[in-house]
Design a protein that fits this description.
mainly alpha
């Protein structure tokens, strides 16, 4: 597991005067020269975020409304709007939370000595993303549901995919010269295709089989 060599705190969202919008800190972790922000928020607000993530993942961004979120979170509607100001900002918070946790997991694989080759790391990154309960599930759902509904939140999911593509490219580039070298976009497409298959079947039975065949094993 890579060690955190530096933690820098700075304001992430500056609450607008009078909105009562959630203020919190962004902590930047640096992994071998690559920065990765994480969120620090109060435990009650975090509980609402985690509840919303579960509801958005299960029911979708359209169907999981504010009333359902406050009911499951056991808070008052006024408290919800004091925390987040709007459902859109809550959605953004949920995506940031998942995105940052996922980046941390990806970088842990990239810099781990547990996986001896770049191919092993690529396979593990695919497995990390392709699971019904994966951190990627919400970001994947955002690509299909949020482009028109919440464009700013949609672009957060797009930005994560661009970041992931760069990490995949670096790993593909470092593969041994005699090894199978898929295009980084091909690996990302593999993640998306397997994710669709897993979500439709609610089963991981085919994931590892397809993954090994993809690498010619």
């Amino acid at each position: 597991m890579p060690s955190t060599v530096l933690r820098l705190c700075c304001a992430f969202f500056s609450p607008q005067k009078g909105t009562g919008f959630l203020s919190h800190l962004e902590t930047t972790r640096i992994y071998n020269g690559k920065t990765m922000p994480t969120l620090e928020i109060s435990s009650k607000k975090l509980q609402v975020v985690q509840t919303a993530i579960q509801l958005f993942t299960t029911y979708g961004f359209h169907n999981a409304g504010v009333d359902l979120i406050i009911k499951k979170s056991k808070i008052q509607k006024a408290t919800f709007y004091n925390y987040f100001h709007s459902k859109e900002r809550l959605v953004e918070m949920c995506l940031i939370f998942q995105k940052n946790r996922l980046k941390e997991e990806v970088l842990a694989i990239v810099y781990s000595h547990r996986y001896p080759t770049a191919a092993d790391k690529l396979k593990e990154i695919v497995r990390l993303h392709v699971d019904v309960n994966s951190l990627y599930h919400l970001l994947f759902k955002a690509i299909f549901e949020l482009k028109l509904l919440y464009p700013r939140a949609y672009h957060m999911a797009v930005e994560y995919r661009k970041w992931l593509l760069r990490e995949l490219f670096d790993l593909v580039f470092s593969l041994e010269s005699n090894a199978f070298k898929p295009d980084a976009n091909m690996v990302l497409n593999l993640i998306d295709g397997l994710m669709l298959q897993v979500l439709s079947s609610n089963s991981l039975d085919e994931r590892d089989v397809v993954l090994e065949r993809f690498w010619g094993n």
